[in-house]
């Protein structure tokens, strides 16, 4: 039997992480619980109207869209950081990280595998949160849904790249839960500003074409490409 | 370890640098208050406008410092040489110091000039994010005791943080452009309208601040080296005391 | 042939290894010393998992380079912990590493047979007793039939049967071109089959020599 290539080995490791998560349920389940609790709290804070036209009393459609987009991404941001902090937990539990570091696979493969697992987690959280927003805030993306999904995925790539890298940094220190947000939040600001703005315009009924022209996609793609590649390259120095 | 002659030469250079930096800073104060008379005509009066001469050079030094962190971090990851790590660490500390000065002097000027302490303007916001990023960098460094590991982790953050800067800047600019709220502040760093006296004062201050940065950095690296030397001596002292107490252990090799 | 020159490792202000000069030849070398003598640290450096403060390691004729994937393929290492994923079964753990190394399909079963752990294949690694965990860890290190084997305390927590299984697995692994280092604080079990021995005392080599008089010198230093 031949030795698998880079991609096959990477996917093997991602599958391993997902399988472990299915058994341990100590990353995704807390992320979902966190997401649900935060969304409920947000719902309580909003002054809602009786009718279901728009969920916030006395606010214009654009304001509602701004607020909901902000809520959505702040919830995702913190749910993601809660989960990403645990990225290397299973590796460090019984020293499996040493076994993994010795495997003939480039370090960027380890990074990609971990990032793919985190991407899976965050996409599941979003697939849970989006309908929840429709339900609780009568959010109506309508024809903007497909571009919205594209925006969400573009944000996710940058988020997961930076989140996974800084989670690996945090895992090497004595206070990993604390240092991850301290490092990741400032770095993630551009990708989340872009995400909030695009999401808000899409749910307010903005057209895809004008958004592309506004340059936000440029910010997202630049962030994803520059920080994604950098993260994969510098990762090896974190785990050395 | 360090050769004596080079140490004394470098400490002489350091002294020359320090004298030059502080001397020029003194000179720039004279220029700022007595040569740049044009500033007196600005609305809000002369003293207020003169914050500019400290604010802008501080911002320049901050960006310069973080660029040094970026380059030294790359060099450290490539070579694993301690000096690059000392350089990155020192430069990050000085960068945070000067970013703090920017964030303090800015609002002092903005309150009377704009009528508000703070604007979510692109430049202000990206400076604030920069400050947070490198505070995180310094916090990370304080968490790990092993110098090699601390250096590697910090270098990763230093590289990613700096690459983030232009994206932060563009994103914040677009963010504001899309949501124009309140007055757009005049660009305080636009020096094209400055008179000759002001330009003289400004560039003297700029050079003085840059020299000050170089002097701080050289001092900081020197202190880092001395701290390393102390560590080395303590390790050697520990070794020496251990040799005296080494006792024989079981000798399984003696069999055969 | 594994050689170290002036190898020094410092944790904070504690010198864990202090100028280690060793050359370790083919066969199995026992690495002895009390807890804290630097055995684990030395093995981690030899595995490339820990960068020494100074000094160097050469494997064959080339300096140790963990980035070199060919070197990693030749190396088997079982550290202080089991090196396994507690939520996966023993079989899943070994199958994962077997695929990553490109081992033959029956590699997992063969190695489990060898450490007499075949009946625990479907048990979660995290639920094994400490002794069984050690055996699973050694099985993982031996899985891809490495040329260089580094074992840290493989006999910890083992009863006589378990120890015999480990010894048998090591014995069937050894052969021409194979170099193994087995670290242990109780020398008895390893002495029985080792070709050479090294004693570490507080980070320095106090004794090093071959058990085979007149035979090929396993080490000098």
Task: Describe the model.
The complex is a heterotrimer of chains A (240), B (256) and C (221). With 240 residues, chain A is mostly helical. The model of chain A has no long low-confidence stretch (mean pLDDT 89). Chain A has ten helices and no strands. Chain B has a single domain (20-185, 193-247), classed as Four Helix Bundle (Hemerythrin (Met), subunit A) (Up-down Bundle), CATH 1.20.120. The two termini of chain B are 44 Å apart. Chain C has a domain at 2-83 and 146-210: P-loop containing nucleotide triphosphate hydrolases (Rossmann fold). The longest helix of chain C is centred in the C-terminal third of the chain and has 14 residues, at 160-173. The radius of gyration of chain C is 17 Å and the shape is globular. Mean pLDDT of chain C is 90; it is low at 214-221. The A-B interface holds A 162, 165-166, 169, 172-175, 179, 182-183, 185-187, 189-191, 193-194, 197, 214-216, 219, 222-223, 226-227, 230-231, 234, 237-238, 240 and B 77, 129-130, 132-133, 135-137, 139-140, 143-144, 149, 152-153, 155-157, 159-161, 163-164, 167-168, 170-172, 174-175, 178.
The number of strands of chain B is 0
What's the structural domain tally of chain B? 1
Query: Can you give the mean pLDDT of chain A?
Result: 89
Output the number of helix runs of chain A.
10
Keywords:
heterotrimer, B: 256 residues, mainly alpha, Four Helix Bundle (Hemerythrin (Met), subunit A), 7 helices, 79% helix, globular, disordered C terminus, C: 221 residues, alpha/beta, Rossmann fold, six-stranded mixed beta sheet, 29% helix
Short précis:
By secondary structure, chain B is mainly alpha-helical.
SSE map:
The complex is a heterotrimer of chains A (240), B (256) and C (221).
Chain A: H1 6-24, H2 28-45, H3 61-84, H4 89-93, H5 96-102, H6 107-137, H7 145-171, H8 176-203, H9 208-213, H10 216-239
Chain B: H1 4-35, H2 46-49, H3 52-79, H4 82-114, H5 122-143, H6 147-178, H7 196-245
Chain C: E1 2-11, E2 14-24, E3 27-32, H1 39-46, E4 54-59, E5 62-63, H2 69-74, E6 75-78, H3 90-101, H4 107-114, H5 130-142, E7 148-152, H6 160-173, E8 179-184, H7 188-191, E9 196-201, E10 204-210, E11 219-220
Parallel strand pairs in C: 3-8, 3-9, 6-7, 7-8
Antiparallel strand pairs in C: 1-2, 1-4, 2-11, 4-5, 9-10
Helix pairs in contact in C: 4-5, 5-6
């Amino acid at each position: 039997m031949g030795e698998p290539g880079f991609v096959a080995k990477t996917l093997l490791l991602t599958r391993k992480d997902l399988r472990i998560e299915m058994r341990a349920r100590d990353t995704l389940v807390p992320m979902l619980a966190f997401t649900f609790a935060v969304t409920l709290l947000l719902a309580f804070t909003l002054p809602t109207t009786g009718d279901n036209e728009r969920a916030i009393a006395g606010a214009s459609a654009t304001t509602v869209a701004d607020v909901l987009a902000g809520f959505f991404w702040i919830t995702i941001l913190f749910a993601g950081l809660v989960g990403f902090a645990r990225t290397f937990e299973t590796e460090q539990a019984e020293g499996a990280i040493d076994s993994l570091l010795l495997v003939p696979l480039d370090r960027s493969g380890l990074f990609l595998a971990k990032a793919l697992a985190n991407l899976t987690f965050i996409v599941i959280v979003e697939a849970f949160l989006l309908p929840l927003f429709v339900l609780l805030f009568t959010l109506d993306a309508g024809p903007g849904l497909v571009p919205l999904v594209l925006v969400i995925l573009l944000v996710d790539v940058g988020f997961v790249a930076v989140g996974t890298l800084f989670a690996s940094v945090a895992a090497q220190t004595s206070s990993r839960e604390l240092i991850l947000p301290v490092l990741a939040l400032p770095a993630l600001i551009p990708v989340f500003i872009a995400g909030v703005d695009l999401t808000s315009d899409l749910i307010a009924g903005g057209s895809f074409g004008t958004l592309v022209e506004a340059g936000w996609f440029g910010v997202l793609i630049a962030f994803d490409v520059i920080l994604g590649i950098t993260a994969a390259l510098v990762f090896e120095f974190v785990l050395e | 370890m360090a050769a004596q002659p080079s140490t004394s030469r470098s400490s002489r250079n350091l002294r020359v640098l320090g004298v030059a930096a502080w001397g020029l800073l003194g000179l720039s104060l004279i220029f700022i208050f007595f040569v740049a008379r044009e500033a007196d005509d600005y609305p809000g009066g002369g003293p207020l406008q003169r914050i500019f001469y400290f604010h802008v050079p501080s911002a320049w030094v901050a960006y310069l410092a973080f660029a040094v962190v970026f380059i030294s971090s790359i060099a450290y990851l490539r070579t694993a040489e301690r000096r690059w790590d000392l350089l990155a660490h020192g430069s990050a500390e000085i960068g945070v110091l000067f970013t703090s000065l920017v964030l303090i002097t800015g609002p002092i000027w903005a309150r009377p000039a704009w009528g508000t302490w703070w604007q979510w303007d692109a430049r202000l916001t990206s400076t604030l994010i920069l400050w947070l990023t490198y505070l995180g960098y310094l916090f990370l460094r304080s968490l790990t005791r092993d110098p090699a590991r601390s250096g590697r982790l910090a270098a990763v953050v230093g590289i990613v943080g700096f690459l983030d800067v232009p994206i932060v800047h563009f994103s914040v600019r677009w963010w504001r452009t899309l949501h124009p709220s309140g007055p757009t502040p005049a660009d305080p760093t636009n020096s094209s309208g400055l008179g000759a006296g002001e330009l003289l004062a400004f560039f003297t201050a700029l050079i003085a601040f840059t020299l000050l940065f170089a002097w701080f950095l050289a001092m900081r690296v020197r202190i880092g080296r001395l701290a390393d030397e102390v560590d080395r001596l303590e390790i050697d002292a520990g070794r020496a005391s251990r040799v005296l107490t080494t006792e024989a252990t079981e000798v399984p090799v003696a069999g055969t | 042939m594994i050689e170290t020159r002036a190898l020094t490792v410092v944790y904070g202000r504690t010198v864990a290894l202090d100028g280690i000069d060793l050359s370790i030849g083919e066969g199995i070398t026992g690495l002895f010393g009390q807890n804290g003598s630097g055995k684990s640290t030395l093995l981690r450096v030899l595995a490339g998992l820990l960068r020494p403060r100074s000094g160097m390691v050469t494997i064959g004729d080339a300096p140790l380079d963990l980035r070199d994937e060919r070197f990693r393929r030749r190396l088997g290492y079982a550290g202080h912990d089991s090196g396994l994923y507690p939520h996966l079964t023993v079989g899943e753990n070994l199958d994962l590493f077997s695929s990553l190394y490109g081992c033959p399909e029956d590699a997992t079963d063969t190695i489990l047979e060898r450490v007499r752990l075949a009946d625990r294949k479907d048990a979660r690694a995290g639920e094994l007793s400490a002794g069984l965990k050690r055996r699973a860890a050694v099985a993982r290190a031996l899985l891809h039939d490495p040329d260089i084997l580094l074992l840290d305390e493989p006999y910890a927590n083992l009863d006589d049967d378990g120890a015999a299984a480990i010894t048998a697995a090591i014995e069937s692994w050894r052969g021409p071109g194979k170099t193994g280092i087995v670290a242990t604080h109780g020398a008895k079990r390893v002495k029985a089959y080792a070709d050479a021995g090294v004693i570490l005392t507080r980070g320095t080599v106090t004794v090093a020599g071959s058990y085979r008089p007149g035979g090929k010198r396993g080490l000098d230093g």
